[in-house]
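Onboarding guide, step 5: your first structure request.
Type a short instruction followed by the sequence, for example:

Predict the 3D structure of this protein.
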Amino acid sequence: MGILIVRIITILLVAGLSGKGVYASDGRFDVLKAPKPLPKFSLMDQNSAAFTGKNLVDQWTLMFLGFTTCPDVCPMTLMKLAHVVEKLKACVAEPLVPEVILLAVDPKRDKQNLRKGYLDSFGSHNTAITGDWEQIDILVDGLGGTYKFQNTHTGEHAGHHGYDVIHTTAVYVINPEGAVVGTMGMPWKASAAVNFLGELMSDNALASTSDLNTCVASTNQP
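The system replies with structure tokens like these:
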């Protein structure tokens, strides 16, 4: 139990490394002082299709770092983001509904697990991308995140599947131009995330109302 507590605390501390001093902070929800374009990268999605920065254009994206054998933070984030997406569907046109992207940083295990349908249990609007570590690192650095492997020893004290991946837990908000415009730092509530995203998206066309903030507020009513 003590090891588990230390591991969770370590993950939460790493979450604080998600930015590099360029954000105007507002609690757990941060907005960049200016949009941050991402560097060129070349990865693959869960269907082995090529995925580059072009795939981020003309849509909103919620991207986070993780790995498919993660026992807690990653599946929890996917479930919470699925709830956020469902709420936003009531307020924005379908092309503006954010795509949730898991940047899988453990390709040794992730490639196989993604092919087996890892994302199937987490709803629609989900994509996972991975590839060579060189390309993964380019995107991770561009986002301002970090990850590392630890507990690589074997035996009865080995970590999950022999080793663990400690990673930034923030969710990066990417605008339709493919640039990072904000972050959501763990832990956060789905209702607060919907309000935050509503403000960021308020200049875009809506499906059924002229006031996104009003619509978002209504979805958060009990």
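Each response can be followed by summary notes, for example: The helical segments are 2-15, 73-89, 107-115, 133-143, 190-200, 212-219.
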